[in-house]
Amino acid sequence: MRHRRFGTASLMLMTLVVALLAGAGLASAQVGTPATGPVASPEASPVASPAANTGTITGRVTDDATGAPLADVYVTVGWETLMLATITDADGRYAVPNVPAGESAPVLGFHDDGYRYHNSAFDDKIDIVLEPGQTYRFDFSLMRLDDPAGEPQLTDAAIGPDQATPGEQVTFEVTAKGGEGGLSPEVIAANPQLGQMVLMESVGGDRYRATVTISPETPPGDYPFAFFAASNACYVNSVFPMVTLHIGQA
């Protein structure tokens, strides 16, 4: 099954929060206050003071062939106007709080070690839109492809500056190319502790980049971001480059 890109028409319906900075080709967004850490389970995951008019997406990710739970799957929610992220625990469970109600919230799953990428909008043909206060359960499975020749290649991942304070801007960038069917628009960096995904866009050639503003409420700490991408045939890079963003006191 081939992966299909998010359509141009649907993207035009979204109000862009991630916009290209004039003349620089950089996407601008904001890294928010930590929404959740790596979760023990959706029931036990602490969600402090959820925002009004939001809901939560929970679920479990399993191996398509064996049914075994898959740990360390990066789960992202949204596309351009909404960019949230978490990671599955040892039992394959995840929870994403503070998902705005009334807004399309596609769930994407990325795992290394030769697994296929999953997209709720295209693989399951569903449009996830939450009601205020709703907890929506979405379970899905990932199929192992084990075909390194079809995987996109990611190199030279960087965050600059890698030491910053709340309110400052930082730039994420990576070189991404190849993959069965060509590279898809999903070129992403994600940190589960912050609950944040960063969608990078091409700035020419094989280089992808986005600039984000660190939320003023972000606590000091070290936040490792994983970089990954999908091809149009749903292959994912088998090794996720990791780069740590060091946040200091404002």
Overall description:
There is one protein chain. This protein has 250 residues and is mostly beta strands. It has two domains: 39-142, Aromatic compound dioxygenase (Protocatechuate 3,4-Dioxygenase, subunit A); 148-247, Sandwich (Immunoglobulin-like). The protein has two helices and 19 strands. It has helices spanning 8-13, 120-123; strands at 19-21, 26-31, 54-63, 74-77, 84-87, 93-100, 107-110, 118-119, 135-137, 140-142, 153-160, 163-164, 169-177, 183-191, 196-199, 201-202, 207-214, 221-231, 242-247. Strands 1, 2, 11, 13, 16 and 17 form a six-stranded mixed β-sheet that branches. Strands 12-19-18-14-15 form a five-stranded mixed β-sheet, with no helix packed on it. Mean pLDDT is 84; it is low at 1-28 and 33-49.
Labels describing this entry:
Protocatechuate 3,4-Dioxygenase, subunit A, five-stranded mixed beta sheet, 250 residues, 2 domains, mainly beta, disordered N terminus, Immunoglobulin-like
In total, how many domains does the architecture comprise? 2
Which architecture of the largest domain would the CATH scheme give at its second level?
A: Sandwich
What's the CATH topology name of the largest domain? Protocatechuate 3,4-Dioxygenase, subunit A
Uncertain spans: 1-28, 33-49
How many helical elements? 2
Tertiary shape: globular
Number of strands: 19
CATH superfamily of the largest domain: Aromatic compound dioxygenase
Describe the sheet with the most strands. 6 strands, mixed
Radius of gyration: 17 Å
Structural class from helices and strands? mainly beta
Distance between the termini: 48 Å
Helicity, as a percent range = under 10%
In percent terms, what proportion of residues is strand? 35-45%
Quote the average pLDDT: 84
What is the element string, with H for helices and E for strands?
Answer: HEEEEEEEEHEEEEEEEEEEE
* Main CATH class of the largest domain: Mainly Beta
